[in-house]
C-alpha cells in the first residue's frame, strides 16, 4: 500500500476510534512533524524545547482531544502545527510573566529577512485577524506555523494556489501593521 493510501486508511480508522491507528499515523507523519517543530524552534532562540519535546507535547494535546474529524494528511499536519504553536505561545507567556519580556520571531524568514516580531504581539494580532477573517488567520497558521506548502493548503481549503498567494500577501501585510501598531487596552 502506498504511503498516501496508508495515511488515508489510518485517518479513517482513527476517526472510528482506533487509537492504534492514531499511533501508527503519528509514526508515519513523524518526519514531517519533526520538520515543522524544527522550523518553529529555529524561530524561537530562547526556548528550552527540543523538536522531540515539542512534537510529544503536541501529540499529547492531540490525544487529549479524543475523537476528532480529520479529513486528510494535510489536516493532521495543520492541526499538529497549530498545537505546536500554542505550546510555544504558552511557553512564551509563562516566560514573559516570569521575566517581563517577550521573545522575538521572524514572521517570514524567507521574505522578510532579519525582521523580528514579538511572539505574544504576533499571537494577539493573529487573534484579531481571526475575528476579522478566520480564513486568513488559518492560512497564517498553516503557512507560517505549519510550514505547509501552498499545494497542501489548497487541498485543505479548496482555494487555488493563486488565491492563496494573494491572501498570504494580505495576511502578512495586515499582521505586520497590527504588530507594529497594536491596539492598547
From TrEMBL:
Q: Which GO terms describe its biological process?
A: DNA-templated transcription initiation
- Keywords, sorted A to Z: Sigma factor, Transcription, Transcription regulation
- Protein's name according to its UniProt entry: Sigma-70 family RNA polymerase sigma factor
The UniProt GO MF terms for this protein read:
sigma factor activity
Enumerate the spans annotated as RNA polymerase sigma-70 ECF-like HTH domain.
7-179
Query: What protein family is recorded?
Result: Belongs to the sigma-70 factor family. ECF subfamily.
Matches recorded under PANTHER family: RNA POLYMERASE ECF-TYPE SIGMA FACTO, SIMILAR TO RNA POLYMERASE SIGMA-E FACTOR
- The source organism is Sandaracinobacter neustonicus
What is the superkingdom listed in this entry's lineage? Bacteria
